[in-house]
Specification:
The structure is a homodimer of 200-residue chains. Helices cover 66% and strands 0% of the residues of chain A. Chain A is mainly α. Chain A has a domain of 131 residues: Tetracycline Repressor, domain 2, CATH 1.10.357. Chain A is elongated. Chains A and B meet through helix 9 and helix 10 of A and helix 9 and helix 10 of B. Chain A binds a DNA duplex (30 and 30 nucleotides) through helix 3.
Chain lengths: 200, 200
Amino acid sequence: MTTAKRDTYTPETLLSVAVQVFNERGYDGTSMEHLSRAAGISKSSIYHHVAGKEELLRRAVSRALDGLFGILDEEDARVGRPVGRLEYVVRRMVEVLIAELPYVTLLLRVRGNTDTERWALERRREFDHRVAELLKAAAADGDVREDIEVRLVTRLVFGMINSIVEWYRPDGRGMDEREVADAVAQLAFGGLRRAGDGRG
Amino acid sequence: MTTAKRDTYTPETLLSVAVQVFNERGYDGTSMEHLSRAAGISKSSIYHHVAGKEELLRRAVSRALDGLFGILDEEDARVGRPVGRLEYVVRRMVEVLIAELPYVTLLLRVRGNTDTERWALERRREFDHRVAELLKAAAADGDVREDIEVRLVTRLVFGMINSIVEWYRPDGRGMDEREVADAVAQLAFGGLRRAGDGRG
DNA sequence: AGAGTAACCGAACGATCGGTCGGGACAAGG
DNA sequence: CCTTGTCCCGACCGATCGTTCGGTTACTCT
């Protein structure tokens, strides 16, 4: 009795269509005409549901950011030895990134042309900083290598994780979130070289 | 007697300005008006040097692709044990990426809206494939871990390397190409964990 | 000095941009 | 029945898009 009035668009369902087109064509490369064709309604009808193009972008990146910041509030990310918390966050980042793939994809591609985009970039930097502090704490414990700058390592690991949006596609038979998260964690913490070879 | 006629724009000098603006605003987010302001000449004057906006994009990604494919022709990338050739290619990729930073940055951001962009994506896939084969050969020799899929590892390592364009800025006092290349190679091959700890 | 030309400009082109407007179709509630 | 409000539409807005055009500088060469 609460929902189910008609089978038309809501701001949320319209958003999922819009985000998909944004990711295919790029935000700037997507016109409202493109969106209307993809949604199957007229251009002006879109404005019945949302205020405009930029609101769609804001809703999308907000959803992605909520998912990422949510990780830091989880218990395993807050308590325990920093290196363990770090590994947990890395795994969860992969899982959230895959669970909210189109939204995180869009977030990772904003350039900063509008106020919304600049706000998204700022929040992204804040998240990166929080994880960097975790890595720094793990380094202080002597649990991760210190011969490479913490700042640099953070960026490289983030780069590896974020690059997942460039190729992961949830087409049925593919690997699931857990498998990818395991691979990323193993590669990031253990390295490319055959396990047991040490460094020689 | 060959060069040095006037101190005006050439297609190359104009390209360097254009690529910088493309990277700041995104290709689709950049208008010819933006380019003319950045270059300090009128919009119509740009067309005296190049055929149009898309030619600037084509020249830029061509330069990036030439740099990357050039690596595969170098001797250290062609002869020797695959794992050694792989590490050489990884290091050189970082160096080329930094040496041609704005051009590679643009290459890594094309989405496929035009023929030029689709051609760039195709050539990128070709390069990725060539490196993936090298990794596969190293795995066959038992020199790199085989518990993670070769295809996945390739993508993650590429992701780590390519992410450099998102943060590296050549502002004088920063790290140089060699330092970054060393860090990437060490992290990719040795992993995050403190050297000597093994996997425990 | 005069010819030739590379470099540049303002004005304008048709097309498309994001967004607005008045109104029509249709279901729910009386 | 008629009203109310949701959902949607075609037509249109001023602005901006990439590009073209005719014409004016300003430099080089003879």
